Amino acid sequence: MKLLPYTIISLLFCFGSVLKVSAKPQTKRVTLKRVTHLTVDILPDMGSHFIFPFVLDENDSTIPFTNVSTNKLFKTERSKNRNTFVVSIDGDQVPEEYRGRALPQYYGNLFLVAGDYNITVELRTTNDLEKHFTEYIFELGDLEEELLLQKMVQNRLALLEKDFQKRLAEIDDLAEDKVITKLGELAAQPPIVKNIKEEQELQSDDGPIVLYVDRALQYGRFVSYVYQIENRTNKALSVTGIQVLQNNEEGGTPSRIHSVQDMPPRLMVDQIFNGVVSMNRRHVDPENLITLRITTNKGDVNATW
């Protein structure tokens, strides 16, 4: 009979423990700010689930994520491409004398960076189930959600621009390879040369400007016209445009032929520039006249052949 009170006390203690262990999980909601501070009590063998409103990934350039714990007793477990991770106590780090017993209180900091959000979590061990929260749900306020969306859009545009520049470089490399290949083909055969020897002079207030078209060089389906522009004025001359025009039989406005050329530099007094203008030969009608027009700051000079 003397054991009965102790038996009752033991049963009540066990019953109370069962009630505590079987208590409903507690959830705490946290509004994310640019700098967020939080205290988390961790119960041994339980752990807390951190849930974010976006995916967490170190390799994600949209919302980059990092986490650092200052105490090895507290460990984090996370899978890639998930918006959650778990913080718990690492049993292997618990001192031998406290394994299977109530822990004294340990402290540590967990530093989280998720996009533009800096979160400092003070971690503490606890043996009180009432202080332990099973889930910490991080939420965005209206302004933070708008800022996050803007950040995601900006980062996405930056990624698209980077990808575009990469593809552009690949296209440039491909174009260069084709040019080199074509250059090899053209170098293997001499050009067909046609003499033009057409000279025209523009009289300006500062003196004459002379345009001389020397010859045409035909490389397969391409043709290049070699010319000279000479500044005989008493002032510097600027060339602002070069056009190759195709006259038509009806005598109307000449049509422009698509051509490629380097723009001459600013010509000093008595300076001569040797230039080449090139195009696809299929754009040229050999039955009609062609005009090379050089536009300068002192007027146009035209050579027709």
Properties at a glance:
305 residues, Immunoglobulin-like, 5-stranded mixed β-sheet
Q: How would you briefly describe this protein structure?
A:
This protein is of the alpha+beta class and 305 residues long. Helices cover 21% and strands 44% of the residues. It folds into 2 domains: 24-149, Immunoglobulin-like (Sandwich); 192-304, Immunoglobulin-like (Sandwich), CATH 2.60.40.1150.
- Annotated CATH topology of the largest domain: Immunoglobulin-like
Low-confidence stretches: 1-22
The number of E-state strands comes to 18
Helix content: 10-25%
Cα-based radius of gyration, to the nearest Å: 41 Å
Order of strands in the sheet with most strands:
1-9-3-6-5
- When the domains are counted, the total is 2
Q: What is the CATH-assigned architecture of the largest domain? A: Sandwich
Taken as a percent bin, the fraction of beta residues is: 35-45%
Global structural class = alpha+beta
Largest sheet: 5 strands, mixed
Apparent shape:
rod-shaped
Q: Could you state the order of secondary-structure elements as H and E? A: HEEEEEEEEEHEEEEEEEEE
Overall CATH class of the largest domain: Mainly Beta
Mean pLDDT: 84
Tally the helices: what do you get? 2
Distance between the termini: 132 Å
